[in-house]
Automatic annotation (TrEMBL):
<dbReference type="GO" id="GO:0007035">
    <property type="term" value="P:vacuolar acidification"/>
</dbReference>
<protein>
    <submittedName>
        <fullName>DMXL2 protein</fullName>
    </submittedName>
</protein>
<keyword id="KW-0853">WD repeat</keyword>
<dbReference type="InterPro" id="IPR001680">
    <property type="entry name" value="WD40_rpt"/>
</dbReference>
<dbReference type="InterPro" id="IPR015943">
    <property type="entry name" value="WD40/YVTN_repeat-like_dom_sf"/>
</dbReference>
<dbReference type="GO" id="GO:0043291">
    <property type="term" value="C:RAVE complex"/>
</dbReference>
<dbReference type="InterPro" id="IPR036322">
    <property type="entry name" value="WD40_repeat_dom_sf"/>
</dbReference>
<feature type="repeat" description="WD">
    <location>
        <begin position="160"/>
        <end position="185"/>
    </location>
</feature>
<dbReference type="InterPro" id="IPR052208">
    <property type="entry name" value="DmX-like/RAVE_component"/>
</dbReference>
<feature type="repeat" description="WD">
    <location>
        <begin position="118"/>
        <end position="159"/>
    </location>
</feature>
<dbReference type="Pfam" id="PF00400">
    <property type="entry name" value="WD40"/>
</dbReference>
Length: 185
């Protein structure tokens, strides 16, 4: 799966020289993050205008439409994570109202899909990591802060400043004992 600054999203297969499908043509907002869900049957694309779009991967048409597309943040959606069976999605980004980390239910109408919005990360959240064993979300922000959320209780558990500049990467070890942050500095 490839995404570009021009907004194009294409899927390739290792053994084929041509793309399998073009999910999105050039001329859209820049792609900020893309993931497959754990089952490999859906892919999601976040963009610089605050949208998250999700497609079924097993498309037979050359230009399929996403089965879900909604504006998660008013400025940009920087990262997202499929939670559990992919019907729950967490997003991070920047919104005018500082609701910069959100939980969404993909099985209800788009007008009711926002489950919870966390007011956090002045100037926006840049990265997001889901810890399934502990049911936690970890987010990093533009000002170097890290927030840890309990998604069952829908509350902020911890916050601390990890860096002097924007957190650009988060990684979680497989046993979920540790996580690592990387910054712009």
């Amino acid at each position: 799966l490839t995404g570009a600054q021009d907004g194009s999203v294409r899927m390739f297969e290792w053994t084929r020289p041509q793309q399998l499908v073009c999910f999105q043509q050039a001329g859209n907002a820049r792609v900020t993050r893309m993931y497959f869900n754990a089952q490999g049957n859906k892919c999601g694309v976040a963009d610089g205008e605050g949208f998250l779009s999700i497609w079924q991967v097993n498309q037979t048409t050359s230009n399929p439409k996403p089965y879900l597309s909604w504006q998660c943040h008013s400025k940009t959606t920087s990262d997202f994570a499929f939670i559990t069976s992919s019907s729950l999605v967490a997003t991070s980004g920047q919104s005018n109202d500082n609701r910069n980390v959100c939980l969404w239910d993909t099985l209800v109408s788009s007008s009711n899909s926002l489950i919870h919005a966390f007011t956090c990360h002045d100037h926006g959240a840049t990265v997001l990591q889901y810890a399934p064993k502990h049911q936690l979300l970890i987010s990093g922000g533009r000002k170097g802060y890290v927030y840890i959320f309990d998604i069952r209780q829908r509350q902020i558990l911890f916050t601390f400043q990890a860096h002097e500049s924007a957190v650009k990467a988060l990684a979680l070890d497989p046993s979920e004992d540790y996580f690592v942050t990387g910054s712009a500095e």
